[in-house]
Amino acid sequence: MAKSLRVRAGPLAFALPGRTIAVTAALILVVAAVMLLSLSRGTVAIGPGTVLQALLGQAEGPEGFVVNTLRLPRTVMAFLVGAALAVAGLILQALVRNPLASPDIIGISGGASVAAVAFLSFLAPQLGAQWLPLFAIAGALLAAAGIYLLAWRSGVTPARLVLIGIGLSAAMGAATTLMITLSPIATTMTAYIWLTGSVYGSDWADVQALLPWLALLLPLALRHARAIDLQEFGDTLATGLGLPVQRNRLLLLVLSVALAGVAVAHAGAIGFVGLMAPHIARRLVARQFAGLAPVTALIGGMLVVLADLVGRTLFAPLDVPAGVFVSAIGAPFFIYLLFRQRF
Amino acid sequence: MTAITAIHTRAGRLLAGLLLLATALAASLSLGQTNLAPTTLMAALTAFDPSNTQHLIVADSRLPRAVIAGLVGAALAVAGALMQALTRNPLASPAIFGVNAGAVFAIVVASTVLTVSALSQLLWVGLAGAFGAALLVFGLGSAGDRGPSPLRLVLAGAAVSALFMAFTQALLVTNQQGLDSVLFWLAGSVAGRSLDMVYPTLPLLLPALALSLTLGRAINLLASGDQVAQGLGQNVVGLKLLLGVLVVCLAGTAVALAGNVGFVGLIVPHMVRSWLGTDHRWLLSGSAVFGAALVLMADTLGRFLIMPQEIPVGVMTALIGTPVFILLARRGLNHG
């Protein structure tokens, strides 16, 4: 195998070490296996052979319907949401130079949550649920803009960004709680499940709504791979190497917010993926964004697919939201990270 | 007038705080859906007439509410001041010890799985949860060969909180009944409690408050650094342990009484520091006074903003606290 693969295609330019490519290939196989498992398990167990037949459109009877109409969009959705959150976390960690940063910490999920719950409480009956993602994305963007502006004092420092993010998150959490306590119980339940993060009931329309965003945002992030790597070195060095630091910081923040925002908009406030996936990826491959991004995306996607799988099978007939299991893995993982850090 | 002329001295400023507290208390007792005249209020307190509706409002609703709000505010603010001294971290607050999340989780388990519904019983469950979570956070934060460091405590607290939150959510999304009954409590509220709920907590709360207020001098010494304090003959480890226990007693009781009332423990010590200075002998009593006043005012204000409904006090403190916090974060949090 070649030592490294050089990519030069228009604005994309990077070299991927052989190990990175091998790890990515292996991960793709693992993810495919996990998704196959997710398609075959549930209230009705379907053998992997039948699942494959169903995917090819050759299954007779209800199996084809269960696999293609119920489980496949949900599984694909879980994967996409996880991948988007994971890459958003990867960009953010480089941006604030803090390995413990994640989109949920700096208020992006909080902004989306406020907007989504406001929508569910006041507008959903009139407008219909299909507008929910739009409101959630707008909320995420508004919150991020607010955090950025409040943190601005002749430039934005990573520490101030995180602090303001935490503060504003708390306020948005309070506003969310307020709306939930005041709304009728049916809305309360919908909103609460949304807040926990779930891909329950996802269909192809959801996938179609999410996919174009990722197809736009992920290549855009790869295009700025070099800038993302430079941000990690610190302001002085990055400026010295010719990077317009503040302008790039804003751009990367927008990318991260958009990725997290669209994911949260469709699946609710799933926490910890943006924190965990980049860490696992960094242990597997070299610290270089162009190589890290696909690995992070695969790991993040796999985490949510697994969490969803556990949530709907382990406690059947209850459908426990995926967000619960991501947190149940994520919090101990966070503690583990804590112990590895040298303070 | 003496309070105003002497406002440049610390005693004068603390007195001004007491006046503010008295005003907030009077407002909390007399204002709301039904506004009561000062004379009615006095009559209800001094010559209670059980057949008078207005008197009943004071005795059954307003007075317990005001007492709980005041106690919760004082306890949280003092706990926050102790916490900030203990961790030398200006962003430390009781929530960081996992106290809130632990109490919430315990209460949700009790009310959904074990179907406990009496508030007086939930109080003890919440307190047990607060202690359990604090022990876990402290254990995690101090495990390993390097011992407890402020940052490790803070991060362990964040992680344990997140874990308990996840379990709480899991229980609530699978149990709609439970969600409905605990949501208002989750938001942090002092409404609908009776004084009977408060009495059993007093033997824990009042001594903890009193003891905290006497520790000012020792904490001042601690603030000059572990080694200096040790050199001057202070038992640093013992004091830190005592502070930790006090924080959990104060914050745990407050959370068990009123649910999630955030930001009080974080911002009140900062506001008091800029008003009374960094000497803990003043800072602690100032925090108690201003903390109580803040929660009383937040609760009273919450009754008016979206009449006829009420905004839970925990939501109010968060909405009031955020701008202060953002100001602090922009200034760089350089004191404490």
The tally of structural domains of chain B comes to 1
Overall pLDDT metric of chain A: 83
Terminal CA distance of chain B: 32 Å
CATH superfamily of chain A: ABC transporter involved in vitamin B12 uptake, BtuC
CATH fold label of chain A: ABC transporter involved in vitamin B12 uptake, BtuC
Secondary-structure topology with pairs:
The complex is a heterodimer of chains A (343) and B (336).
Chain A: E1 4-9, E2 12-17, H1 18-40, H2 48-55, H3 62-96, H4 108-127, H5 132-151, H6 158-182, H7 185-196, H8 204-223, H9 225-231, H10 235-240, H11 245-267, H12 273-284, H13 289-313, H14 322-340
Antiparallel strand pairs in A: 1-2
Chain B: H1 2-5, H2 10-30, H3 38-46, H4 53-87, H5 99-112, H6 119-142, H7 150-173, H8 176-187, H9 195-198, H10 202-214, H11 216-223, H12 226-231, H13 236-258, H14 264-276, H15 280-302, H16 313-331
Helix pairs in contact in B: 2-4, 2-15, 3-4, 4-10, 4-13, 4-14, 4-15, 5-6, 5-7, 5-8, 5-13, 6-7, 6-13, 10-13, 10-15, 11-15, 14-15, 14-16, 15-16
Write a concise keyword list for the protein shown above.
heterodimer, A: about 350 residues, mainly alpha, ABC transporter involved in vitamin B12 uptake, BtuC, 2 strands, globular, B: about 325 residues, about 0% strand
Written overview of the protein:
Chain B: Belongs to the binding-protein-dependent transport system permease family. FecCD subfamily. Chain B: This is Iron ABC transporter permease. Chain B: Keywords: Cell membrane, Membrane, Transmembrane, Transmembrane helix, Transport. The complex is a heterodimer of chains A (343) and B (336). By secondary structure, chain A is mostly helical. Chain A contains 14 helices and two strands, in the order ββαααααααααααααα. In chain A, strands 1-2 form a two-stranded antiparallel ribbon. The mean pLDDT of chain A is 83. Chain B is globular and about 65 Å long. Chain B has 336 residues and is mostly helical. Chain B has one domain (7-335): ABC transporter involved in vitamin B12 uptake, BtuC, CATH 1.10.3470.10. Chain B starts with a helix and ends in a 5-residue tail after the last helix. Chain B is built from 16 helices and no strands.
